[in-house]
């Protein structure tokens, strides 16, 4: 049968109706076309040829699939089933008119829509690559040259989307130069798309008519972005000449009539932030001459007490044992934390704060091309309070606001992929041994691996509860000068906090670390109402606390006192892991108790007793846990927790800014509710119900025993009468009143009658 004789494929032929052009144009105008519900002509046509449209929709969703949610990764994981599924769908329809191009453009629309919801690109890339690779092997099966050329163009379209994802990731890479290169490559790929679209031999092809203007628009978009990123990078180095032309390029790209509103919003965001940067080129800029950045990844243990965890690590220190973790050997295991006098307590009876630490080799961060980013120290701390955390430290000099912003953003679990490696004692980089897990692509990944590896030293298989990561930036020296990258000779030291806050670039110190990066130089616009602590030490000191960041800038204070205050900020940031562990423990308790109480089977007395014993043990465990929580909270909030009243007031300020009281109130309220849970009453009711049923069963058994006794006595009475009758027969025989045959017959009849009567009387008496 020829293709033209198949009615449902007539609209799919090379010279299809203009409605397909309208559908494709609509897709590009929105870049978020929800067609899986059947509203799209493309979706309906794909269904007509047997394509599972819902599977195409799910293929691009990071949170769908039998294997659950995808990790926070940009690159596909081996064995992802979305690839073979897409390849099979394309192979099945490759020989049908226009079907491959329709499938590809529909997949593009769904992937583009998914990009609006996530920075996790791994699962989105899989079906796109599968289509491109499969089309290269089956394109010769296309029915004609036009369909083949349309498939080629759509395959290039999918490759441009993959490149676009690389550009999106580069925004979160902490490198404007990397973003400029990625955007330039995306523009080149769009040039390939333009050539492939123009190579479609039919000028009336809906794909040619839709893809040619889109390719031109996207070339302009990515080139404008590349130029803007490069110009911003130059401006940070004191060469702002390219910034004004780059802004004009962004404005021109925004006016493209084929640009959809999503890409237009991105260009607008780029332009707004760079306009602010350009407006302040002649302002007084802040330079961070000396600063330290500490990355804190807190966690708690769900099934091991803090005391036991510290004791287990301390045993390693006592044996002078340095375990091997993630492919390298720890430098040292310290049986005590290195702490300054600020943590001494005037109350000798109070619970002291302390712990142990594992010092790991330094960590080297590199861009994927091997270019150096930073070197950080690394250690893992276990405390007797339970606020354990992985700690990375990075010190730097002569940092611009953009460099500070990039350094703080390394905290994020959605930072773009970089190389994370150990530095061996001889100075050579060493890859992290990830032991079957995906290799670390960012600092967050290494922290996660370290948390799990070190807790296995406490007890293998120990469950952890991760807290919210936090970055503490401590400014030791800062200066102000005209414009970005002003020479040191033209800068004056910052002596007061007001001077620091008045300089352009200080806003980067007041902002939280963003979840992901969506624009260029996102620090340039000021945030509303930053949280600035008042009365820290001296007038003009600056301490800014945000959701996941703290900045300490104490002008006129000695280095060691600034470091002491920084240790307070670290302590407060690490408490998030403790609260996470507490909440997880409460949830575990509630689940265990609910499961045991949900079993209402009262017929098994042994099981009831066992459940009662388990619930009693669980309640005792909860009371012990409640005592530990109350002791820890009481210690932290005690006025004698720290030796110095001034430092104690500073700690209270930091705790208040971190909403410590609210978090503690939530935990204590949940504890109170669980402790007041009428478990004993519910067990007593269950036990009473079990007792009532046991007593009823015993009464029933007693009635049965009595009936058995009554029936037996009745039967005995009947048999006693029988024996009396037999005696009468014997007397009659002895008196020759009856003969022997008659005597035997009479005895047999009496005996049979007695048996029947006795059984009947027994059954009747027993069954009453």
TrEMBL record:
Keywords noted in UniProt: Membrane, Transmembrane, Transmembrane helix
Residue numbers spanned by region Disordered: 1-21
Transmembrane segments: 711-733, 739-762
The protein, known as: Uncharacterized protein
Organism: Promicromonospora alba
């Amino acid at each position: 049968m020829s293709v033209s004789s198949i009615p449902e494929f007539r609209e799919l032929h090379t010279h299809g109706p203009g409605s397909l052009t309208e559908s494709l144009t609509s897709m590009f105008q929105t870049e978020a076309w929800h067609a899986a519900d059947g509203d799209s002509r493309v979706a309906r046509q794909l269904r007509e040829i047997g394509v599972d449209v819902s599977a195409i929709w799910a293929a691009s969703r990071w949170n769908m699939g039998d294997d659950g949610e995808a990790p926070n990764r940009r690159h596909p994981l081996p064995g992802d089933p979305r690839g073979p599924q897409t390849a099979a769908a394309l192979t099945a329809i490759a020989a049908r008119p226009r079907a491959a191009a329709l499938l590809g453009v529909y997949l593009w629309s769904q992937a583009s829509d998914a990009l609006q919801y996530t920075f996790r690109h791994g699962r989105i890339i899989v079906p796109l690559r599968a289509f491109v690779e499969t089309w290269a092997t089956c394109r010769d099966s296309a029915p004609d040259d036009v369909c083949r050329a349309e498939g080629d163009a759509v395959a290039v379209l999918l490759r441009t989307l993959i490149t676009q994802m690389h550009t999106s990731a580069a925004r979160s890479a902490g490198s404007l130069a990397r973003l400029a290169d990625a955007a330039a490559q995306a523009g080149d790929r769009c040039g390939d798309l333009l050539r492939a679209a123009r190579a479609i031999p039919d000028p009336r092809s809906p794909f040619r008519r839709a893809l040619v203007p889109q390719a031109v628009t996207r070339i302009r978009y990515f080139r404008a972005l590349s130029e803007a990123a490069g110009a911003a990078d130059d401006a940070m180095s004191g060469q702002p000449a390219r910034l004004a032309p780059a802004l004009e390029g962004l404005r021109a790209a925004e006016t493209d009539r084929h640009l959809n509103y999503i890409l237009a919003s991105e260009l607008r965001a780029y332009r707004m932030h760079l306009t602010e940067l350009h407006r302040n080129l002649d302002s007084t800029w802040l330079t961070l001459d000396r600063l330290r950045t500490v990355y804190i990844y807190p966690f708690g243990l769900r099934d091991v007490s803090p005391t036991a965890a510290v004791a287990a690590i301390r045993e390693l220190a006592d044996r002078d044992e340095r375990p091997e973790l993630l492919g390298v050997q720890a430098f040292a295991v310290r049986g005590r934390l290195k702490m300054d006098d600020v943590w001494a307590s005037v109350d000798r009876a109070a619970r002291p704060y302390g712990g142990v630490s594992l010092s790991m080799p330094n960590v080297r961060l590199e861009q994927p091309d091997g270019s150096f980013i930073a070197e950080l120290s690394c250690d893992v701390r276990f405390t007797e309070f339970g606020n354990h955390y992985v700690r990375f430290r990075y010190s730097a000099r002569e940092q611009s606001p953009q460099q500070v912003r990039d350094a703080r953003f390394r905290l994020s679990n959605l930072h773009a992929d970089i190389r994370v490696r150990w530095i061996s004692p001889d100075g050579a980089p060493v890859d992290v041994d990830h032991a079957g897990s995906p290799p670390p692509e960012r600092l967050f990944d290494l922290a996660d691996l370290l948390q799990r590896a070190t807790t296995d030293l406490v007890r293998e298989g120990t469950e952890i509860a991760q807290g919210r990561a936090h970055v503490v930036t401590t400014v030791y020296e800062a200066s102000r000068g005209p414009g970005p990258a002003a020479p040191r000779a033209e800068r004056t030291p910052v002596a007061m906090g007001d001077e620091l806050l008045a300089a352009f670039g200080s806003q980067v110190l007041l902002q939280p670390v963003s979840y992901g990066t969506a624009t260029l130089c996102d620090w340039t616009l000021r945030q509303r109402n930053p949280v600035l602590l008042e009365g820290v030490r001296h007038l003009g000191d600056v301490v800014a606390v945000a959701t996941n960041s703290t900045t300490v800038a104490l002008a006129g204070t000695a280095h060691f006192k600034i470091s002491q205050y920084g240790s307070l900020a670290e302590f407060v940031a690490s408490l998030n892991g403790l609260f996470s562990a507490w909440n997880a423990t409460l949830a575990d308790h509630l689940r265990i108790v609910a499961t045991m109480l949900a079993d209402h089977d009262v017929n098994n007395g042994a099981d009831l007793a066992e459940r009662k014993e388990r619930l009693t043990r669980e309640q005792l465990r909860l009371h012990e846990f409640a005592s530990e929580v109350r002791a820890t909270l009481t210690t932290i909030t005690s006025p004698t927790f720290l030796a110095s009243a001034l430092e104690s007031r500073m700690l209270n300020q930091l705790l208040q800014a971190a909403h410590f009281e609210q978090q503690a109130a939530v935990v204590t309220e949940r504890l109170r509710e669980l402790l007041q849970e009428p478990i004993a009453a519910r067990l007593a009711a269950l036990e009473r119900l079990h007792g009532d049923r046991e007593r009823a069963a015993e009464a029933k058994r007693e009635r049965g025993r009595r009936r058995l006794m009554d029936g037996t006595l009745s039967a005995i009475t009947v048999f006693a009468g029988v024996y009396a009758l037999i005696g009468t027969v014997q007397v009659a025989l002895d008196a020759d009143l009856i003969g022997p045959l008659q005597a035997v017959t009479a005895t047999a009849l009496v005996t049979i009658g007695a048996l029947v009567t006795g059984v009947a009387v027994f059954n009747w008496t027993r069954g009453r």
